[in-house]
Structure formats: C-alpha cells, structure tokens
Write a structure and sequence with these properties.
The chain has 163 residues and is mainly α. The chain folds into 2 domains: 52 residues, no CATH class; 81 residues, no CATH class. Helices cover 69% and strands 0% of the residues. Helix 1 crosses helix 2 and helix 2 crosses helix 3. The protein starts with 13 loop residues before the first helix and ends in an 8-residue tail after the last helix. 2% of the residues are buried. About 7% of the residues have low confidence.
C-alpha cells in the first residue's frame, strides 16, 4: 500500500531560510528531506522528554510576547503622532474662531453678497493652509495667500455659504 504524502508550508525570514539551506547542503540532503528529518526529530524529542516539551512550548510564547510588544510600541508611536497633529488642528480651529469673532463685523444687507464671496475665498485659503500643514508643511503655511482674484472661492462651490 502506497503512503500518501502531504505538503506542509511554513514562513521563514530570508536569514532563517538561508541558514536552513546551508545546513541541508552541509548534510548532503535536499531542503525538503532535511526539514522533514528536523521535524520528525523534534517530534521525537517532544514525546520522549517531557521537560524538553515544556521548555519548547515557552519559546513560541516568548516570541509571541516579543511580537506583541513591538506592535504595541509601534502603535503607540503612531497614536502619539496623530495626537500631536490633532492638537495642532484644535489650536488652529480655536484661533480661527477667535479671530473670526473679533474681526467679523455685522454685514449690512446691501454688502452681503460681497461679504459671502470674500468669506468663501478666505475660507478656502485657510483650508489650504491646514492641508499644507498636515502634509508636513511649516507653520508659515498659515500665512494668507490672498491674491484678490477670488479663484480659490470658485474651486469648491459645493461648500460655499449662500445668501
């Protein structure tokens, strides 16, 4: 009766794979045969020596713990960066609200359309400055770039204030 052979796959780093290939070559065995012998030898050790088996179980747990620790550190750094950017945004929004409330006079009805056009243009300049800052620009990106042609106000009419 012919035995059924089953393929098994595992993932290795390049360094691990190279080391195993060199070991197989040194033993004059194919990589597949070398890995099979290693696994069977390991299984035999695990069944014959219970002390070895308990130590072997702790190795994957330690590796898992190290991976989790590195992942937590990485995520913590990402969250810190996001928090810093959020603080910048909150400061910008607060400063904008204060400036708008201090400098925005009541607009007479006859000047309302011109005020809305000016407000939309200035609003788009502000949004562009915030976007530049978030992309890694300098705080100097907050300086207004008012060229007076109103082109910015026409860029995104879907968010303009209507009279």
């Amino acid at each position: 009766m012919k035995q059924t052979i089953r393929a098994v796959a595992c993932y290795l780093t390049e360094a691990e794979a190279d080391a195993i290939k060199r070991a197989a070559t040194a033993c004059n065995l194919s990589l597949s045969r070398y890995l099979r012998q290693c696994l069977l030898h390991y299984q035999k050790l695990m069944t014959e020596q219970p002390a070895f088996a308990s130590a072997a179980v702790s190795i994957p747990l330690a590796e898992t713990e190290q991976r989790l620790s590195r992942s937590i550190d990485t995520q913590s750094k990402r969250i810190t960066k996001i928090h810093e950017r959020l603080q910048i945004l909150l400061g910008m929004i607060d400063r904008f609200a204060l400036t708008a409330l201090i400098h925005a006079p009541e607009v007479p009805t006859e000047l309302r359309e011109a005020a809305i056009a000016s407000g939309n243009r200035r609003y788009h300049n502000w949004r562009r400055a915030v976007e530049d800052l978030l992309r890694g620009g300098e705080l100097s990106a907050l300086a207004p770039s008012d060229d007076g042609d109103g082109a910015e106000a026409e860029r995104d009419e879907s968010q303009e204030v209507q009279p």
